[in-house]
Amino acid sequence: MRPLFIAGNWKMNPNTEADAVALAEAVKAGVGQDHAVRVALCPPSVYLHRLDSALSNSPIGVGAQNMHPEPSGAYTGELSAAMLVDVGCTHVILGHSERRHGLGETDAFINRKLHAALKAGLIPILCIGETLEEREQGRTEAVVASQLDGSLDGLEAEPMAGVVLAYEPVWAIGTGRTATPEQAQEVHAFIRGRLAEKFSEAIAARVVIQYGGSVKADNAADLLARPDIDGALVGGASLKAPGFLGIIEAARAVTRAGKG
């Protein structure tokens, strides 16, 4: 069984450094030194350095929500992979739908970021997923395959094993709608099969594939118990420590019980 990985994407929240540190410390206290489930927090970039300090002596990783593919240069407002590493980042979210659809990021641009992140030693959390219109048109697999192929272009097999994928159906992000465990498992299994075709069965079996989209403490266990769902990329529910810790506890329970 692959280790389950729960990551909190705080997006543009909270509004103060004090609140960010307090949230991180509450999660740290709840996680303790338990390494059974991998955990990471991805705050706004202005809080990254403070969270690295707040989470010291903790197994919790720190992730950025984005990065630029170039190592330096005239890119106003952007951050490089080296900068993220310097402030303590272990992970970086790439290709989130809010950047793909809201800011027009292409698979080719995301692919450049992916290679830069891996070169810098960061663990990429690569997001893929279809819109409601695409699902209703029966195009889920085609869209997901296209995003995978474009975003992973040029990647060798062994580095692929270190990439985390996050299947996030766009229609379930922040809407309160969640893919059923069956729907989510179906797409996760398709993704793993695609990886087996592109790389190998052995590599596909090692890749962690998270689910994202209105994950909460009360639905996490059913999702995480599915054979190809290896964790969750959590949005709104990661902004309150009790709810986020509830998801982590659900992951721990699945880890203890194993998957049938």
Describe the structure.
With 260 residues, this protein is α/β, with parallel strands linked by helices. It has a single domain, classed as Aldolase class I (TIM Barrel), CATH 3.20.20.70. The chain is built from twelve helices and eight strands. An eight-stranded parallel sheet has the order 7-6-5-4-3-2-1-8. Helix 1 runs parallel beside helix 12 and helix 7 packs across helix 9. The mean pLDDT is 96.
Instruction: State the helicity in percent bands.
Output: 40-55%
Q: How much β-strand is present in the residues?
A: 5-15%
- Kindly provide the radius of gyration, computed on alpha-carbon positions and rounded to a whole number of angstroms: 17 Å
SS summary, helix count: 12
CATH topological fold name: TIM Barrel
Q: What's the helix-strand series?
A: EHEHEHEHHEHHHEHHEHEH
Class of secondary structure makeup? alpha/beta
Main beta sheet strand tally, sense and closure: 8 strands, parallel
Number of domains: 1
Main location: cytoplasm
InterPro entries: Aldolase_TIM, TIM_sf, TrioseP_Isoase_bac/euk, Triosephosphate_isomerase, Triosephosphate_isomerase_AS
Subcellular location: Cytoplasm
Function: Involved in the gluconeogenesis. Catalyzes stereospecifically the conversion of dihydroxyacetone phosphate (DHAP) to D-glyceraldehyde-3-phosphate (G3P).
